């Protein structure tokens, strides 16, 4: 499939984003608050997250990708009432197997 010039001009992502449906957790920096989310698509540089609401979600947090047992520090780049676009601020790293949410 080829993209038209207008589609390329409106997509400002640095890398291709793959559709996915992964279980995730939004975890505050001090690990005091956890929100469930669905990771709807992901790229090397970021992800799109679906939540019940984004009202109480901070601008920076840890995103845990449950089945991969990985996490990354992220920063919100855009938000709607139930969706966040986040940029990875650190590389994905493994988290301990005993960690429970």
From TrEMBL:
It comes from the Bacteria. InterPro entries: PilZ_domain. Gene3D superfamilies: predicted glycosyltransferase like domains. One of its GO terms (molecular function) is cyclic-di-GMP binding. Coiled coil: none annotated. Residues 12-90 form the PilZ domain. This is Pilus assembly protein PilZ. It comes from Pseudovibrio exalbescens.
């Amino acid at each position: 499939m080829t993209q038209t010039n207008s589609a390329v001009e409106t997509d400002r992502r640095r890398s291709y984003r793959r559709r996915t449906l992964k279980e995730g957790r939004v975890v505050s920096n001090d690990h005091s608050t956890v929100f469930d989310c669905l990771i709807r698509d992901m790229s090397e540089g970021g992800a799109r997250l679906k939540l019940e609401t984004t009202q109480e979600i901070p601008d920076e947090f840890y995103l845990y990708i449950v089945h991969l047992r990985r996490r990354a520090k992220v920063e919100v780049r855009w938000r709607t009432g139930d969706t966040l676009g986040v940029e990875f601020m650190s590389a994905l790293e493994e988290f301990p197997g005993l960690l429970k949410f």
